[in-house]
Structures are given as C-alpha cells and as structure tokens.
C-alpha cells in the first residue's frame, strides 16, 4: 500500500533540525512524528514527541482529525519525571 505521494514541485516545510536527530543532553531537542491507526469505528491520528538524547517518547496526542496542529499541545507524561 502506498500512503504518501509527494509532489516534487511542492514547497517543503521548514526543517530547523536539518536531519540531525541527536542532542548532547536531555530536553535539548524534541522531534515529532504522526501516524494514523484504523479502528473499528473510524481512523484515529496519533502524534508522538521524542527526546532525541534519550530516544524516549516524552509526549503524545490522539485526535479524530488528521489536522494535528494540536500536537504542539501534546500530553507530556515523561517530562514530569525528568528534571
């Protein structure tokens, strides 16, 4: 199954990380990714925020909408535990 068909002429999103997915200490750089999951009722969209130093999930959000602009408001379950 092919889920993404990119347009080579389309404008690209800003890439401040420049594909350098490493950090020298915890909580310096976080990256996010999103995916969709088919459920019995509908499609659910999930976004995860990862700390690049520890490579752990530091936050997540779930939505019934593919517009995950609220991913910036992810739930930070792990950040409470890291000081």
From TrEMBL:
InterPro entries: RNaseH-like_sf. This is Integrase catalytic domain-containing protein.
């Amino acid at each position: 199954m092919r889920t993404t068909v990119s347009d080579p002429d389309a404008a690209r999103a800003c890439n401040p990380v420049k594909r350098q997915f490493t950090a020298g200490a915890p909580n310096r750089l976080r990256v996010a990714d999103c995916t969709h999951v088919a459920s019995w009722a509908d499609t659910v969209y999930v976004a995860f925020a990862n700390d690049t130093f520890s490579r752990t999930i530091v936050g997540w959000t779930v939505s019934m909408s593919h517009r995950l602009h609220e991913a910036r408001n992810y739930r930070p379950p792990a950040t409470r535990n890291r000081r």
